[in-house]
Amino acid sequence: MTYLAIVAWDDANRVSKYQDFPTEEKATAHVDAVKGDFSDAFAALYPGGGYQDWLIDPVAKTLSVVPLPSVLIELKSLKRDQFIAEGVSRVALQVPDWDTLDTIKTVAGLWVSHLAANATAAQLKAKNIYLYVRNIVPAKITAVTTQAELDAIDPTFADPFGDGTPWPT
């Protein structure tokens, strides 16, 4: 059986950060190791389904499988695609040669070893835009629980989520 270390979840009690382990002992050891940063972390038996379907009972420290409506999942995927397109456009405004997602991913892979020491201000801003799309956007969209919330998010706005998490400037 597979066990999970559940370390973070959103306001709707949907998993946002976890790691799987082959045994309960290893999952529990990981939970113990991260308790300083994630005080509510717990180990649980893998319940089946995908992590988007897991619902946490934070008091009982259990997981159940309660799928989100498939329409919302599809709309979230479309919203992520909109953020990617907007991010590519914003990066290309900074560094015109970085005008495709593949190019941006290639540059990101070379960043530490080749570019970081000699990066221009525009390249640094482009990197921050890429990291916003890669690291911030997925967690924010995962936390959305209704279509109305999702519809209120506009990737073209300076603060797309309206919560003080703006695009890098």
Structure explained in plain terms:
- There is one protein chain.
- With 169 residues, this protein is α+β, with helices and mostly antiparallel strands.
- It is built from five helices and five strands.
- The strands form two sheets. Strands 2-1-3 form a three-stranded antiparallel sheet. A two-stranded antiparallel ribbon has the order 4-5.
- Helix 2 (70-94) runs antiparallel to helix 4.
Biggest sheet strand line-up:
2-1-3
Give the strand content: 15-25%
Radius of gyration: 19 Å
Helix content: 40-55%
The topology string of helices and strands comes to EEHEEEHHHH
- Number of DSSP-assigned strands: 5
What's the N-to-C terminus distance? 46 Å
Low-confidence residue ranges: none
Structural class: alpha+beta
Summarize the main sheet. Answer: 3 strands, antiparallel
Number of helices: 5
What coarse outline follows from CA principal-axis ratios?
A: globular
- Give the tally of structural domains: 2
- Chain-averaged pLDDT: 89
Layout: helices, strands, pairs:
Layout: E1 3-9, E2 15-21, H1 24-34, E3 42-45, E4 54-57, E5 62-65, H2 70-94, H3 101-115, H4 121-142, H5 147-151
Antiparallel strand pairs: 1-2, 1-3, 4-5
